[in-house]
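step=encode ok
step=design start
structure_in=
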């Protein structure tokens, strides 16, 4: 597949690795890559040779930094409708119930949580750092906060969402609060995630997929109800695009602390 994704399949293990391949843009997702992600998850549904998937990012600096700020995303002129280009970039949004493991190196922020929030679990190396920049730039953290609320204690989610770019959560802290299930040395997260996926893929597929579905069913009602309110909250709370751009242009690199 060309464009912003790279996919490899290991036929002997049944594991596919899906890599966000835009390292020069810190693996930020433009509209074309968002469409590729949706197509990839849908293709995995019908590929019986794929029994587990690992999602990761190319390069050392970032797993994913969310929506590419250069992406043109026209919006309906109505507070009741929001076209979110990242809404269908995750596996569950595309009705894929095969297990997905995320491998994180470097930054994971903003729209990255659409992917991390729909993975079964997250493996990260010691370089990983997590933050949500929305409030800093006059945007509502709605979808991201909902996804994170399924993984972390309320106070930790609230702090991340409200502190914006002023603070980053280290890989160690993310492990301590439950966002990350395994912490590895630098550069080893992908191998660890693939090892987990290989074990899972070796088990009977129907039993694995049924377990995945059961796990998600336990929280689906709450998640679906919360996400239903997200478009209106975003529409009502976001600053105009030009004002967001001004705040983004005025950002000061390095002005954050890590905990």
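sequence_out=
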């Amino acid at each position: 597949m060309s464009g912003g994704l790279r996919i490899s399949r290991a036929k002997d293990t049944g594991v596919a690795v899906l890599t966000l391949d835009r390292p020069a843009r810190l693996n930020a997702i433009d509209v074309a890559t968002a469409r590729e992600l949706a197509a990839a998850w849908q293709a995995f549904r019908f590929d019986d040779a794929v029994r587990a998937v690992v999602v990761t990012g190319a390069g050392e600096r970032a797993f994913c930094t969310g929506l590419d700020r250069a992406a043109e995303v026209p919006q309906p002129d109505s507070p009741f409708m929001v076209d979110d280009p990242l809404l269908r970039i995750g596996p569950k949004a595309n009705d894929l119930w095969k297990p997905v493991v995320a491998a994180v190196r470097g930054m994971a922020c903003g729209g990255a949580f659409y992917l991390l929030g729909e993975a079964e679990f997250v493996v990260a190396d010691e370089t990983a750092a997590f933050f949500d920049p929305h409030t800093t730039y006059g945007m509502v953290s709605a979808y991201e906060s909902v996804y994170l609320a399924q993984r972390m204690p309320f106070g930790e989610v609230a702090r991340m969402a409200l502190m914006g770019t002023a603070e980053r959560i280290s890989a160690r802290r993310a492990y301590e609060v439950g966002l990350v299930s395994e912490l590895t040395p630098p550069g080893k997260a992908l191998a660890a995630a693939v090892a987990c996926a290989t074990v899972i893929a070796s088990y009977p597929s129907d039993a694995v997929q049924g377990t995945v579905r059961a796990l998600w069913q336990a929280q689906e009602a709450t998640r679906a109800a919360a996400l239903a309110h997200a478009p209106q909250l975003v529409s009502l709370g976001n600053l105009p695009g030009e004002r967001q751009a001004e705040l983004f242009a005025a950002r000061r690199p390095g002005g954050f602390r890590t905990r």
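step=design ok
step=annotate ok -> The radius of gyration is 17 Å.
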